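QA checklist item 7 of 12: single-chain prediction sanity check.
[x] sequence parsed
[x] length recorded as 648
[x] structure emitted
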Amino acid sequence: MPQVKSLNQINLLSSLLGIAILTISVCLYFLIHQYQIFFEEAAQFELAYLQNEKNKIKTQVDQVFEYINYQYAQAEERLKSNLKNRVAEAYAISDYLYQQHQSDKSIKEIKHLIHDALYPIRWQKERGYYFIIDSQGVTHLHQDRALEGKSMWDKQDSEGRFFIQEMIQLSQQQHDNYLKYFWYKPHDDPKTMYPKYSYTRYFAPLDWIIGTGEYLDNVERDISEEIQAWLQQFHGTHHHVFLLNSQQELLFDADQHHHSIEGRLLRDIYQQSQQKTASFYPDDQDKPQRLSYLRYFPQWHWVIGCSSELDEKETYLQQKLFNLKTQLQNQIISILVIFFIIACCAFIVSYWLSHKIAAEVNRFDHFLHYSASHNQLLDPQKFKIADFIALAQSANQMVQKRQQAEADLIQINQDKNEFLAIAAHDLKNPLSVIKGYAEEIEEYATQMSVEELREIANAIQISSKRMFDLVTNLLDVNKLEEKKMIIHTSQHNLYPIIKKIVSLYCAPNNAKGLRCVWSDNCLVQHFYAHIDPELTWQIIDNLMSNAAKYSPLGGQISIDLQNHADNVQLSIQDQGQGLSTEEQQQLYKKFNRLSPQPTAGEHSTGLGLFIVKKLLDVMGGQIHCQSEPNQGCCFIVQFPNKQPSKGN
């Protein structure tokens, strides 16, 4: 038989063996560990270098992107300003010629002078020109001489707007007369209209409207050329900026001598930029030789990029690796010396700790022996080691659970005795009635009239129903407590169910002469809730039975129904003896009988409201009571009108 060792001996031997093994293996382990750290740091250096390059090229692209976006945003304002200045010049020329010749020339001659003065003026690469129309829409000056003298009054743009009429109206109102519309470009597809801005000014002496216009895309084209000129500043930098259009053509490349982007990659770059408006390329390689950052400018369908050659990475890493090797050698020597000192200290501490653990184990062993016969708890503060403190707490929990289990067994035994006593008591009376009537029928059946036999049969039926109700309630209680009650909920109208139950208790020939009064809210007759109809019948039947049972002869039962946002609320108010606040707190307990007594000697098992509460819990409903002594009781039930979520 192997020799049994104590925990103290095992701990001391384990510590000595552990120190010996650790002393032998730590150097090898440390070398391997440092070797791994060496390569991990090398990888981190490489990642840091790559991340630094990413940040730089991203910053460069973001700067270019913001500049392009700003220039694009200013396009419309630049266009408006240019148009206004040009019209002001034309207006000044027209006014000058009119003032100089109004006394020596006819109106027709003055118009001709103004026409000849303004017609040859061109700007914006020969695109800009003046036009003149009168208040009737007739053209007096136009780049296309064929349109002069013709009416433009009914001209419509591609959106169906009569833009000439709007232009005349704006000019005569003497405001900033900007107008945006769509019109054809000279020498372009006659079926295609482009967005165009015009600015006009009314020249009252001749009833003329002087104006000029420009197509917005022309202005944007000019701005894009300015942007490309601005990008020339990036030539010769380490990070190469480039610009790609929707045809996968390079509009600008800062590294023209080295051909920074090969033609076969342009399509891949453009497609990736459309899928990801901002991304690195390539984005699927851990160690790329060349890295680019791309941003998509959707207004002009441009790709703005900046790339970096990562050839400097190797030189950078070699220097870092050399530094790491030197540092590693120095650390190994230092660690070996330190470890020898730690090994000696560990042996001393291990020897002391083994004796400490032995004392804790003895204390815990004494507690377990004593606790086997006494329910005494252990004080965790007497222990100094965290593991034993946790064991002490677990042991206390075990003792407490044993105490609770013993208390539960006592309570279960009391419940069983109470259950048997109530069942025996409540079944004894109806069984006695049935037995008595059976003996009477056996002895006097031939002497009884049909009416007497009918009365006896009715009494037997009442007693049988009383026993059946008691057994049913007891079975329901068992199902609810063991969670075996099966429910099937769906949307149902509560009104027909309640109406049928109420009619059973408030029929015109009922023994107590009870009256049932419906509130005005019930006239709606549509109160849909998410319920199980059979369980709901049982709930309402129990509540109506209680209301009828404790109501005085000739009393009134009030019923109210209300639709709320998340439930349907049913209120049943009786005129019985009422309940105190203390009794209301005991309402839903099992086998509970309170001070109010049935007014006609009816029977009560003390299970009805307990079952009602449990059934409402499984359906997600609620119940509460409002009552004062001698003021009757009002039970308020809330049925959910939606299926509860799975998380609830």
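[x] summary fact logged: The chain has a mean pLDDT of 78.
[ ] second reviewer sign-off
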